[in-house]
Design a protein that fits this description.
Elements lengths: L1 E6 L3 H15 L5 E7 L2 E6 L4 E9 L2 E8 L3 H10 L8
Antiparallel strand pairs: 1-5, 2-3, 3-4, 4-5
């Protein structure tokens, strides 16, 4: 499944939170960094399954796209922890 969200965090902050979240907050479905670049991160977990996260800068924040085959609930939960893009009032 593919998930999309927009957040006020920048890419390095997102990846720091992702590494911490997937290593510590879900021990029965932990995943750890395998490869990464300035705007993407691949985590590998149980049974070799992966979580791929990519970012793109947008006005006011960052668009995050995450995909996985096994970790759907956990990825959705992680993305829900990211602060939304701030909108002008």
């Amino acid at each position: 499944m593919v998930y999309n969200v927009e957040t006020s965090l920048n890419a390095p902050e997102i990846f720091i939170q992702a590494k911490r979240f997937f290593a510590e907050r879900v021990p029965n479905q932990a995943a750890f960094p395998e490869k990464e670049g300035p705007d993407w991160l691949v985590l590998r977990g149980q049974g070799g399954e992966e979580i791929a996260i990519a970012t793109a800068t947008i006005d006011g924040g960052t668009r995050v796209r995450a995909s996985t085959l096994l970790f759907d609930q956990v990825v959705d939960r992680f993305l829900g922890t990211l602060p939304p893009v701030r909108t002008a009032v």
